[in-house]
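We now fix the convention by which a protein and its fold are recorded. Think of the row as the fold of the chain written in a discrete alphabet. Here is one such record, which you should read through line by line.
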Amino acid sequence: MIPRPLLPHIGGLPPGPRNAITDVAGVTVGHCTLDAQEVQTGVTVVRPHGGDLFRDRVPAAAVVLNGFGKSVGLVQVEELGVLETPIALTNTFSVASVATAQIRQCIVANPETGRSLPTVNPLVFECNDGFLNDIQRLAITGQHYLQACAQAGVDVEEGSVGAGRGMSSFGLKGGIGTASRRVPAASGGEHTVGALVLANYGKLPQLRLAGQALGAQLADRLAETSGPDADEAEKGSIILLIATDAPLDARQLRRLALRAGAGLARTGSVFGHGSGDIALAFSTAYTIPQQADAPMPALAMLHDGLIDGLFQAVADSTEQAIVHALCRARAVTGRNGHQRRALADLLPDWPGAVPQPTTNTP
């Protein structure tokens, strides 16, 4: 695992104090990790605020860059432009159990859900961790989702944790990564943009790290120690979550989500046929009440002509989060003895060769 302070800083914008999605005030992240021989999987939860999201929803929008995925909840997000549960990440076969847990969680907090109150829209994203994890065991339960929620805080562990435990990226160990950027605001002060990724995608020869085409070199090193990778097809996925405190509506948030694809492409992804690449952006600047008799927020949205700085922050923080996911991951051995090596094991001397800007915060 490469120490975070040594990693290259992407772009010219400064990070927040944690260089994490939780630099956006109110956002918290929690993990539940299952590490038991054949079972290498987990759940990661992102909470936009600490209150009841069903009662006080946040504006959001999603973009499907490539639709080879089995997520739940995207149709209503597209229609209404709001989130009303925490965002959950897990493996492909655990979407249903986590979605059920989100519904039960909402019913406990709001007993009239689906009766005198509207039904709730669970939101669960997935990637396939079946190379390392025995996905057919359906090991994830609702309790694991609740544990991830209970662990949610501002300090975000990265790498082979939570939903990232069994994920692979570029034929190496993938997983969870996060980063943030601060953007000057036209009216004074600044806005914060944060990204969190679940990285489970990519072909090693195509890998680029901080602009350096290192994939071919790494593929040779991996072949020397582990033998050639017989699986040449792109079968992975990546979930890209973007948070900001800038006052944006759902239309503008969709535009932000789309720019996550720019950061993803810089790492060498071509959004391959078998890859489910989905980006979602939300704003914490205001909430939208569930009840029709509650007052709607009166807030001026950011002018479209001032949004380019946020676009830059999304692209840079997304790329940075992917670098963090790869560099912070530890090697994992799982189902049938399958193993994924860690990037740090193959390229231990890489970060020190890249100068660090004075704006980078450990």
